[in-house]
Amino acid sequence: MSLIVNGENIYPEFIEQEMTVLRPKYQQTFQDQSAGQQEKQLREWAKENVIEKTLLLQTAIKDPRPVEKHIIEMEYKKSVRRFCRGEKFFEQKRVNSKRCWKGKERH
């Protein structure tokens, strides 16, 4: 069953992808829950994340204001510093990169 957010289909595959991204940290954090409980809660959180991402994207598309390049670069670097764990940031974003920003390039 797919969800619909403001007329846009959210296919089960999108939720499954989000679950794949969330699963390792979730299982580590909630080890005291049964596997069934973990999967049920994980699915709910993944569904919420996909809905939030969809709403944000829809809002961004409707906003005609341009974003200055230096702001994009600054936010990108902050995100990589915040989420970078080796190459996992790039793997999750499906970017093929040998570098990981931590304020400057890592070789």
Give a short summary of the structure.
The chain has 107 residues and is mainly alpha-helical. The protein has 4 helices and 2 strands; from the N terminus they run ββαααα.
Notes on the structure:
With 107 residues, this protein is mostly helical. It folds into two domains: 1-65, no CATH class; 67-107, no CATH class. 62% of the residues lie in helices and 6% in strands. The chain contains four helices and two strands. The protein has helices at residues 12-29, 35-62, 69-83, 88-92, and strands at 3-5, 8-10. It has a two-stranded antiparallel ribbon. β1 and β2 form a beta hairpin. The longest helix is centred in the middle third of the chain and has 28 residues, at 35-62. The radius of gyration is 17 Å and the shape is flat. The N and C termini lie far apart (45 Å). The model is unreliable at 96-107 (pLDDT under 50).
The helical percent reads 55-70%
Number of domains: 2
Fraction of residues in β-strands: 5-15%
* Helix-strand sequence: EEHHHH
Strand order of the largest sheet: 1-2
Give the beta-strand count: 2
**Whole-angstrom Rg:** 17 Å
